[in-house]
Amino acid sequence: MLDNKLKKLEEIIKGYGQMLVALSGGVDSSFLLAFACKVFDEEGRPDAVAALTASGPQFAGDEQAYAEKLCDRLGIAHKKVDVGHVVGMIKRNPIDRCYHCKREMFGILKERADMVGSVLCDGTNADDMADYRPGNRAIEELGIASPLKEAGLTKDEIRQALAGLDVGGVKEMAEKPAFACLATRIPYGETITEQKMKAIDEAENFLKSEGFSQVRVRCHEIAGKVSGNDTRFMARIECLPGEMGRMMEMAKGTEEKLQSLGFEFVTLDLGGYEKGKMNSMIEGMEEPDRIKVSETVVRGNAANVETADVMAEIDRFLKETREQDYSFSDFVDIIEKLRQPDGCPWDREQTHESLKKHMVEEANEALDAIDEKDWDHLCEELGDVLLQIVLHSQIAAEAGEFTIDDVVQCVSEKMIRRHPHVFGNIDVSSVDEGLDLWEEIKKREKTATK
Fold first, then answer.
1. E strands of 56-207, at which residues?
2. pLDDT tens for each residue of 215-233
């Protein structure tokens, strides 16, 4: 049976003119890459296969290091593609998080494949179809090839085939534990942060260095906030039942190590490691039915809204929002949410270019409010100007260009640099002297950047 499936896999791969493997460094994609190298080498086309590895804080460092090492051993082209911005897109951790993550990540990888005329392939196998994996929908929508799944290979069969595949030393992967991205350690609905994923990665690396084979460090939030945006969280360790005794023997050292990484409490899951365990928490998490608005709605015409249920919800929602206090950081989070896959359709499709006219319109309306000396109106219009600034910054952050923090840093530095008579040791005695000083500093800044 396995031989037949491997023959089918070989035929599938031979059908590709060129092949790019989305290499995570895990068992499945590593096997696919090594097997493809073997097939193309035998055909005299060793350059027909290459690899792309997505990088970012959601991926374990040792997996990424192995991906690079494997490509060096195989002698194939390998590029890393930074998709760290995806963390911001899945920050709120909905139950279909994996769909949104893979839709964005593989969309970027597919662009690279299209540029070189290659078929982009991933390591999805036949067993993956039995678990809750919304990411599979993204793979199908993007037309990513999954040759292992197409050949009907299961995880056990892939490990069996690896043991007999003497290419690039990949047979060592046959005994490697299963892995998944670090975001899977965080329960649905709890915020995904780089802080949490870094702590998870370092905690799991520590336990693996102590000889634990299959281990997960789940990160659970503790009710309540501490200063800033940091959350309090605890670790729930899953290990194999046969290794629990040793885990208890080194409980004190493990607790001290994980607490040093930021985990306030450290616990051991007596049920042990179980693949897909976090998916059991999905039950009962379905979002409540949302009230539908008719597709025939005309803007501003409430008569076309589907009756009283909608209007009652609008009234309730307006009252709720007016009772809240918001800070600047809250506002930044609001704009980020609007740009999420489950956010506002209009906000999601905006670009720097599409917003240009709105920037001008909002600035002009603020000027009108000043001319009218209508300060309540000015307050509202300045908010609209701020909206444009934060929305542009969020778009830039998603593209890896800059963030709102960079904008604040840039303008703060500029204000301090150009006011040495306030923050430094220079005196000015008039507005004109202050303006002359401003222009002189501005000229020197331009000279310094040439």
1. 78-82, 119-121
2. 999 999 986 544 344 568 9
